[in-house]
Amino acid sequence: MQADIITIGDEILIGQIVDTNATFLGKALTEIGFEVRQIRTISDTQEAILDALSSAQNQVKLVIMTGGLGPTKDDITKHTLCTYFEDTLKFEPKVMAHIEELFSKYVKATVNELNRSQAMLPSRCTQLFNPNGTAMGMWMKKEDTVFVSLPGVPFEMKYLVEEQLTPMLKKAFSPPAFVHKTMMTFGLGESIIAKKIELWEQNLPRHIKLAYLPNLGRVRLRLSAKGTNAAALSQEIDCLFEALYPILGDHITGFESEAPIEKKIGQLLQRKGWKLATAESCTGGSLAALFAQHAGASAYFNGAVVSYATDVKKGLLEIPTKLIDQHSVVSRAVALAMANSVLKNTQSDVAIATTGNMGPSKGDADAEIGTVFIAIITPKGEFVERFLFGKHRVRNLQKTRNKALELLYNELLSQV
């Protein structure tokens, strides 16, 4: 069963926003057994929309579109659907009541004619009611193809897919079982992993496929299987992954559907009753942001000092000028001093500090571009690691963040 994904919006085509909807939809459709034939982004014009619809007609079983369902004149998806399906718009009182309720509770403004137009839907569509916004989802069929139109606002679209569309698709199509599972690894490159697991990979069953998904210090290993029995396929994949633990050991940090590594760190900290703080220079607070984004982070994360400038290291973190002059701001000694200072000032149990030269120029540091020091302190000891990551600034930041998480996770894991 094949499906097409169509995202509508000039803002995507000109690079003003990133199309995260297509990524989400591709994953959601694959998980329930659809094969995504193509993902297509088109402009907000009737000509482009009609061309996309007609090109998919009878070529795939399902077409999912997002975008163009707002109340303004540039949102023309509903009118274009009426043209394609030879239908007319019909007023839906239930939708209008919902719009008025949203405005009275949250918007605190008068409902105008543009807002009322949101209650007009193609008369022959099956409605996917959207409790989170004013744009309803629509299900329509023409010959052998089902067309679904969803709002472009990501959280509204995701709710409709998870709560309404997925059950409808399973009932309408009875898709085959399609099972994916992705193992997360840290600290080894793609080629090294491939060499280590070469024999394991050669012995994979023919109906199970392996994909390598590398990303700067971490590699995801995805196994995919298609068949008639999802439970049996899932069990088979679990057994195959189990055989990787003796080969890759502590480089395995879990699975993609599980908690991300920063949340796993939080869980380890909670088991010990420890609190974490970060002192960040070259990572610019991105480590702290990762921890703070999760609900309940206050149970294990105390705070952070982002000491990007040398004067801030001297001021807020009280790093002695003499120490910086003697060792350079990017050094083992300064990284450890940063960690000790934030540990003391936040009354934490665990600290991590980063200092490095991200490039393109050296700034206040004497170290070679790409040099990074990561310091970690726990109640059971302290250590500093030095790395040389290369010349690319953005990649250096990502590598430093990933390596810091890997080091802290492995250190805490060894202590529980």
Explain how this protein is built.
By secondary structure, the protein is α/β, with parallel strands linked by helices. 41% of the residues lie in helices and 26% in strands. The protein has helices at residues 10-13, 20-31, 46-56, 77-85, 93-107, 113-116, 154-173, 190-196, 198-202, 230-242, 245-248, 261-272, 286-292, 310-315, 321-327, 332-345, 393-413; strands at residues 2-8, 35-42, 62-66, 89-91, 120-122, 126-128, 137-142, 145-150, 177-186, 208-215, 218-227, 252-255, 276-280, 301-306, 350-356, 371-378, 381-388. The strands form 4 sheets. Strands 2-1-3-8-7-6 form a 6-stranded mixed β-sheet, with helices on both faces. The chain has a 5-stranded mixed β-sheet with strand order 14-13-15-16-17, sandwiched between helices. Strands 10-11-9-12 form a 4-stranded antiparallel β-sheet. Helix 12 (261-272) packs parallel to helix 17 (393-413). The longest helix is centred in the last third of the chain and has 21 residues, at 393-413. The radius of gyration is 26 Å and the shape is globular. The model has no long low-confidence stretch (mean pLDDT 92).
